[in-house]
C-alpha cells in the first residue's frame, strides 16, 4: 500500500501544434496528477516539508512543462508529465489525466481527456 | 541468438535516467562472457542504457561496453570511501546525466552499503531531495535494503536555502 499526493484541476493555457489557430491563440488544458509515494510516514511524523513531495513545486513544474513544450496530442502531454513526475525518486507510480475542455468537435461534448499511468 | 538478460539487482534509482545493478556478467569466478553479452543486450534494448559508470577497481568490462556502443566512465572507489571520493562520484554522475537523453547505469561488484550511500547521496547532491533522513528512507525503499552507518555517512548535508 502506498501513500498518494494529488493535484486536481491544474489549469494551463498552452499552445499545441496540431491546428494553426490553436498554435497561435492557445487553448485551455486541465491536468490531474496523482503521485503514489513510497511513504509519507516521515512527513506525517515530523511535520517537515522537506520530508515529502512539495506539491507547490510539483504544480509549478507541471504547469511550466505543459506550457513550454510543443506537442500535438494530449497523449504526448500526459506522457511527458508522467515522465517528469516519475523522475522524483520519492514517486513510485503516477497517474496523469489531461483534459481538453475546449476541444473542437463536430458534436457537443463537455470534456475530452486522456489518462495515463506509469510506474518507475 | 542473444535475447538479453536483466542484470542482477537492476533497479531504477531515477526512473528511466539512472539505474544500478551488480557487476555485469557476474563477479569473481562467476563471471561469464556470454552472460555479460546478454546483459549488455538487455541494458541497451530493454532499458535504453546509453552510458555505464563502473566503480570497479580495474577496467573490467569497459571494452565490452564500448564495443556495444555504450559510453563508459570509470572511477576507482576505495573500500574506505571518503566524502571527497563521494563528491567525485557525484560529479561524474552529473557529467554523465548532463545530456537529457542519457540513460546511465552505475555498478560495482555488488550493491553494497557504500554504493547505496553514494546513490542516496546523489539524490541530495543533485537537488532531487533536500533532506538526509528522507534520502536514507527513499534509497532504502528503492533498493530494498537497509542503509547502514557507512552508507549514511556518504549522505551530504543539503545546501542551505
Short summary of the structure?
The complex is a heterodimer of chains A (120) and B (161). Chain A is α+β, with helices and mostly antiparallel strands.
Report on this structure:
The complex is a heterodimer of chains A (about 120) and B (about 160). Chain A has helices at about 20-25, 40-45, 55-70, 75-85, and strands spanning about 5-15, 25-35, 90-100, 115-120. Chain A has a single domain (about 5-120), classed as 2-Layer Sandwich (GTP Cyclohydrolase I, domain 2). In chain A, about 30% of the residues lie in helices and about 30% in strands. Chain A starts with a strand and ends with a strand. The mean pLDDT of chain A is about 90. Chain A is an alpha+beta fold. Chain A has a four-stranded antiparallel beta sheet. Chain B is an alpha/beta fold and about 160 residues long. Chain B has a domain at about 10-110: Protein tyrosine phosphatase superfamily (Protein-Tyrosine Phosphatase, Chain A, Alpha-Beta Complex), CATH 3.90.190. In chain B, strands 1-2-5-3-4 form a five-stranded mixed beta sheet. In chain B, helix 3 crosses helix 4 (about 115-125) and helix 4 packs across helix 5 (about 130-145). The interface of A and B includes residues 48, 52 and 87 of A.
Annotate the secondary structure layout.
The complex is a heterodimer of chains A (about 120) and B (about 160).
Chain A: E1 3-14, H1 20-25, E2 27-37, H2 41-46, H3 55-68, H4 74-86, E3 91-99, E4 113-119
Antiparallel strand pairs in A: 1-2, 2-3, 3-4
Chain B: E1 11-14, E2 18-21, H1 33-45, E3 51-54, H2 62-67, E4 71-74, H3 83-97, E5 104-107, H4 113-125, H5 132-143, H6 149-152
Helix pairs in contact in B: 3-4, 4-5
Amino acid at each position: 500500500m502506498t501513500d498518494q499526493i494529488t493535484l486536481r484541476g491544474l489549469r494551463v493555457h498552452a499552445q499545441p501544434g496540431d491546428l494553426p489557430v490553436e498554435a497561435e491563440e492557445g487553448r485551455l488544458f486541465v491536468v490531474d496528477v496523482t503521485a503514489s509515494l513510497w511513504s509519507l510516514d516521515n512527513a506525517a511524523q515530523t511535520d517537515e516539508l522537506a520530508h515529502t513531495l512539495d506539491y507547490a513545486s510539483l504544480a509549478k513544474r507541471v504547469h511550466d512543462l505543459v506550457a513550454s513544450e510543443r506537442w500535438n496530442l494530449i497523449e504526448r502531454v500526459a506522457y511527458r508529465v508522467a515522465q517528469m513526475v516519475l523522475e522524483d525518486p520519492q514517486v513510485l507510480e503516477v497517474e496523469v489525466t489531461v483534459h481538453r475542455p475546449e476541444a473542437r468537435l463536430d458534436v457537443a461534448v463537455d470534456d475530452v481527456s486522456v489518462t495515463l499511468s506509469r510506474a518507475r | 541468438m542473444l535475447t538479453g538478460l536483466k542484470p542482477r539487482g537492476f533497479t531504477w534509482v531515477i526512473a528511466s535516467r539512472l539505474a544500478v545493478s551488480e557487476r555485469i556478467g557476474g563477479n569473481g569466478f562467476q563471471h561469464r562472457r556470454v552472460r555479460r553479452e546478454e546483459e549488455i543486450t538487455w541494458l541497451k534494448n530493454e532499458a535504453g542504457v546509453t552510458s555505464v559508470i563502473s566503480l570497479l577497481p580495474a577496467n573490467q568490462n569497459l571494452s565490452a561496453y564500448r564495443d556495444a556502443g555504450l559510453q563508459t566512465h570509470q572511477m576507482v572507489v576505495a573500500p574506505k570511501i571518503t566524502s571527497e571520493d563521494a563528491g567525485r562520484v557525484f560529479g561524474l554522475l552529473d557529467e554523465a546525466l548532463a545530456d537529457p537523453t542519457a540513460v546511465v547505469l552505475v555498478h560495482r561488484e555488488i550493491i553494497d552499503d557504500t554504493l547505496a550511500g553514494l546513490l542516496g547521496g546523489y539524490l541530495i547532491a543533485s537537488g532531487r531531495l533536500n533532506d538526509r533522513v528522507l534520502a536514507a528512507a527513499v534509497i532504502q525503499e528503492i533498493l530494498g535494503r537497509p542503509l547502514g552507518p557507512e552508507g549514511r555517512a556518504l549522505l551530504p548535508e543539503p545546501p542551505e536555502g
